[in-house]
Amino acid sequence: MEAKREIIFDKLVYSCAFEMHRGYEEFIPEHFLGFQLSGETHAFHSEGNTIIPENTIVFVKKNQLIKTIKYPSKSGKYQFISITLDKEILQQYALENKIAGENLYKSKHKLFFEPDDFLTSYFLSLSPYINKKKEATPKLANLKIREVIELLLQSNPDFKQILFDFSEPYKIDLEEFMNQNYMFNVPIASFARLTGRSLSGFRRDFIKTFDTTPQQWLLSKRLDEAHYLIKHKKQKPVDFYLDLGFENLSHFYSSFKQKFGLTTSEI
């Protein structure tokens, strides 16, 4: 059964599934706050893997790559609510409250968990909109987003530096970034943005760094990792091809044979 993903109002999304569901790789362009109503989410990002258990609130920072696997609870249902805190509303809030983006928060952590009673109550207050018992007008939706900004700032002062950092991603080490994120099957434009480059600048720097194009390098890197997993970890392609960024098995098998001159069963 397909996972249900429904936009309740402009920036509030409700996800529901009744069996294990592998999500797509996603480029996260804006901060968002989420609440695991039931089941759990396994999130994979450049810093490692994170399990989001039931009744957990999670804050996800903007400008990163994440892929997820969704697992229903014992009762058979997976539910997750997320609310986006986009740049426009945060800038408006900062202007109205005279907040300057200074002393920016430098932590490398991608995910923050806030076991806060006020935030938990906030998400529970959204249930009438999910159950369609109440419609959210644009004005009310705006107020709900502002409410959660207030609650975040109340729960942890560090969020001030995170939420109101409006600087653009700066140019980072391309080789290090790509070796950490090659398994994400996202457009080249997303890699470019995350490394602080225009698309043309990314391609130019990439060829200078790796002496090949992004597409050729990504395919070769993923195949080398697949070769290692098959030969040394005795894993089967069906168990990892999606994790390495391949869209289907037939493409993986043909690419593998072309690169190594052998089939996976011959390794």
From TrEMBL:
Q: Does the keyword Nucleotide-binding apply?
A: no
InterPro entries annotated for this entry? Answer: AraC_XylS_family_regulators, ExsA-like_N, Homeodomain-like_sf, HTH_AraC
Signal peptide residues on this chain, from the entry's feature table: none
Q: Which SUPFAM superfamilies does the record match to this protein?
A: Homeodomain-like
- In this chain the HTH araC/xylS-type domain maps to 172-267
Tell me the Gene3D superfamilies matching this sequence: Homeodomain-like
**Record flagged with keyword Transcription:** yes
The protein's name is: AraC family transcriptional regulator
Task: Tell me the organism.
Answer: Chryseobacterium ginsengisoli
